[in-house]
Structure formats: C-alpha cells, structure tokens
Amino acid sequence: MITAEGLTRHFGSTTALDGFDLDVPAGTVHGLLGPNGAGKTTAVRILTTLLRPGSGRARVAGHDAVREADRVRARIGLVGQQAAVDEQLSGRQNLEMFGRLHHLAAAAARRRAAELLDRFGLAEAGERPAARYSGGMRRRLDLATGLLTDPAVLFLDEPTTGLDPRARTEVWRTIRALAAGGTTVLLTTQYLEEADQLADALTVIDHGRVVAAGTADELKGRLGDDHLDVVVRDPDRLGEAAALLARAGAGEPRLDPDRRLASVPVHDRVAALTEVARQLADRGLEAEDLGVRRPTLDEVFLALTVRSAA
Amino acid sequence: MTAYWMVSDSWILTRRTLLHWRNQPGQLILGLLFPVMVLLMFAYLFGGAMAVPGGGDYREYLLPGMFALTMAFGLENTYTAVATDAQRGVTDRFRTMPISAAAVVTGRSVADMLNAAVSLAVLVGCGLAVGWRWHHGAGDALLAVALLLLLRYALLWFGIWLALAAGRPETLMAVQILVWPLAFLSSVFTAPETMPAWLGTIAAWNPLSATAGATRELFGNPGRSGPVWPAVVWPLVLLAVFGPLAVRRFRRLT
Q: What tens digit of pLDDT does each residue of B162-200 get?
C-alpha cells in the first residue's frame, strides 16, 4: 500500500533522507522509529505529497506520490505533529469545513461531522471553539479530521507527542480500531512502547537511512537473546557486578547507576543465571534482584542507532 | 468540474472567515473600530493644529488618507491569518487535500476584500458624520473606492508573501509597528510639502500617498491632490512583484 525506493532529500547541506526504502502491505500498522532528526517527518512529508523527493520513487495507495499527487491526496489522511485544526471554529465547524473541502455534499458533511464527534467523544464539546479544547481533545479532533473520508492510508506523525497517559491510551485505542477496520497506518514515533503496542512491523531509521526492519519480535531477537539484570544493594559495587556480568554474558554490560542496575545480553539463560548467582555469593555481593528477561525495544533501538552512528 | 470545485472550495474557505467573525465578533468589531479611533484622534486632537497647504478643511483632507491607511491596516488581517495557518499545520492539511492552491488563496482574498469593504463603509459613515463629503458625483466617488480596494488587493499579496516568508504569527507586532512609519511618511495625515524636502519626496512617492492623492482628486477634497495613474500603477507594481513571490513561496513549501 505504501512503497518507497531509494528516497533522498537534502535541505541545503543537510541530508534528511539518504536512500530510504519502505514497504507497507495493505491493512497493517507500520511503525517508523528513529531519534529526533532521523528523517521520519521528511519521509512522511514526501509520502503525503507535501515534499518532493530529491530522488527515488514513492507509491501510496496505488499512485505515484509525485506525478499523481492529486490521486494520492484523495486517498490519504495525515495527522501531523500538531493539531492542524482551526482554533477559532468549533469542533463541528472544523469537521464540516474539512468535509466540504473533501467534496462531501453539505448534508453528508454534516452527517459525517456528527458521526465523528460521537465516535471521538467530542459530541458534548462539539459547539465549543477548538481553542478551548484540552490537548487530548484537540488531538482527537485532529484525528477525526484525518478520518473524514475513510482514507485508505492514514499517516500519523508522532500522534501522541505531548499527550498525557490517558489521552495517549485513547489515541492508541482509536488507531487499533482503525487497523481492525482495514485502514493501512504508517505511524512515526519516538516512543518505543507505542511502536511495540501498535505496529505489526517496524522500520528503524537513523541519519536518513533504514538501519533495521522487521517485526518487534524479530528486532528483539536480532539483538541477541535474553538479558540478565542484576540490581545491587551497594551502589559502590555496581562496577564489580558489571565486571562479573561481562565475563558471564555475551556482550557489553549496560549500567543504570540510578537504579543500581547492571544488564547484559546472554545466550544460555539458565547457565548464565546460575553462574552469576554463584559468583555473587562467592564475593559476598548482595543483590536485591536478579533475573532474566527478553530485551526491551528500547535496548534494540539504542543498540541499532548507536551502531549506525559509529 | 474542476472549475466547479475551485469555486465551491473558495467559497467554503471564504465562509470559514465569516464563521470566525460570527464566532468571535469582538475581534471583527475591534478591527473595524480601530481606524475610527485613529480618525477621531486626528480629526479632533491633532486636527486643530494641522494646516492644509492651499487651504481647506483638515477633516476633508484627512478622510481620503484614513481610507488608504485602513487598507494598509488590513495587511495585518491577511498576515495573521496566513501565518497562523502555516504554523498550526492547517496549510499543510489543505495541501494534502484534493483542493487547489488557487482556491486557498481565493478564499483568503475574498474574505479579506469583504473585510476591507466593510471597514471602508464604516469609515465612510464616520467621515460623513464628522463633516467629510465627496464633491464630484457618485461616479468619481465609486472610482475612488475602487482604487482603495485595488490598493488593499495588492497589499493582500504582500501580506501573503510576508506571512509565508516570516512565517510566525508572533511577528505580527513587527508588522503593526512598521505600518505606522509607512503611514506617517506619506500624505495620509500631513502634506509632504510641510516636511523637509528629502523626506517630502519620499512621502510623495509612498504608495499610500499615491492612493490618498488620487482619491482626494476624485472626491474633490482639499490638499495637493495627485493624478490618478500612480494609484493604479503602484498597486499593479506591488501585485507584479509580490504575487509571483507569494506563489513561489507557497510552492517552495514542497
């Protein structure tokens, strides 16, 4: 439903995108992940026809994003980083106006506006100017506006940035419902939890290039197996614990001094756990917690983006 | 079909501004009253100290200047609207929708020109109340109004360009501050002949002076009224420069 091949875009001497590839099958939620300035927004702006690529090709909903921009526009919805609504208009007036501009007839636009206000829990606030909405309400209105025409492809550029946890959960629920209804969703985010929660597949981007792609589980699997965590009682002995983990583990240990935590990837869970437990006891190194777990997406992300920076 | 949607989209966008006025009438009224306040200030506070070269009533001299200045004030409406849309991402939303850039601009223009016409009507009413008259018949008076609206239309494009180039609604203050020297350095309030020679020359060449001078001529008001042609040429020059620049700015967003 969305394909990109070798997209490149420069802004002056900065390279925002450097041979970006993407393939999103119809009806899936795809997460585009990357640190600030990685090129996520540039990619979305090219795919939504707002920006022309320097080189490369992009097809969205069966049409070329440059040569058939109008056809693409008729089939997509974009929800950007800020709520792109008219704050001087009420929620209903916003939806009716954008509906009419999507070439719905007046009566159809009114009906659709009422439907969406209901669906996004804004029916009561429908007559109030959007300027008086809370951040979460404005975001929902923005999302509703993006859905006026039941777009085949919905682009969400950091849809939950700046939202409180409750509003974020609401937005997540909406995105899940859309995906269940068959909408293809491309979602950019800096929140790994968000990608983990919502996306069927992920593309990790850094410095304008794809550094990894796959499902969340694949990416986690690729990073190495499981992780062994030790929380020590005495913060001064964290270094000692780390040295011990370095010997028992299958990689560089990562330290979190605030939580008195040392963590290392391991191949053989049981062997490593036994070994570390024995060594801790031998040295009289008191541990508050000791355990093995799957890597978090955060660790995958850090490992991938650190690698691409090196 | 394309033409139909162009007209329909433009009207929906015009209607958007009309809805702003209905939702927030305070803003509209304040915008309409501001030139009235300036008019009363100059007519009654400073007016007594003003002499019109060649003789004549100062209020009769002042009104055409106020009309032209009000057209320049309109620039602030255009600027704020365009800059706010650009910053909030509303412009981007329009650009991902199947509507043409021409419709976006036409909607803006029609709304701003409506606003200009209403401001002018209010000010004409106030002018009549303070003793200003047109003396050369309805034809010339209507031509004068047309020249004023032409100036507003040219400034509209300047406003669109400025908003897309400077891009942030917070810089409105700078625009508001810049309108005043432009107004004082013209024949709006005082005759350029009363200024130091070099300043007077600049003031006489100010596009506001061109329109003020031409409308004084057409209304038959006192002061050294100018020929009509600069009031046509100036706006056309502004349009020729800032029209394409604004369109290029809009396209450059891609």
A: 998 887 777 888 888 888 888 888 888 888 888 888 988
* ipTM of the prediction: 0.87
User: Which residues in chain A are contacts of B108 at CB distance < 8 A?
Assistant: none
Within 8 A of B8 by CB-CB distance, chain A residues are: 100, 103
Q: Which domain holds residue B39?
A: 13-252
**Residue A284 belongs to domain with CATH number:** 3.30.70.100
Please indicate, yes or no, if residue B162 is contained in any of the structural domains. Answer: yes
The minimum CA-CA distance between A70 and chain B, rounded to whole Å, is 6
Specify whether A155 is located in the same domain as A9.
yes
Helices B229-252, B101-129: crossing angle, 10 deg rounding: 140
The whole domain housing A185 covers: 2-220
Across the strands, what pairs with A32?
A188, A203
CB pairs A-B closer than 8 Å: 71
Q: By three-state DSSP, how is residue B214 classified? A: helix
Place of tokens 């590839």: A21
pLDDT of residue B1: 62
Establish if B7 belongs to a structural domain: no
Question: Which parts of A181-268 fold into alpha helices (H)?
Answer: 192-198, 216-222, 238-248
Q: Which burial class, exposed, middle or buried, applies to B229 when counting CB atoms under 10 A from its CB (0-12, 13-18, 19+)?
A: exposed
- Asked whether residue A105 falls in the same domain as residue A192, the answer is yes
Chain A hits for B89, Cβ within 8 Å: 80-84
pLDDT band at residue A123 under the 50/70/90 scheme: very high
A289 and A182 in a common domain: no
How many structural domains compose chain B?
1
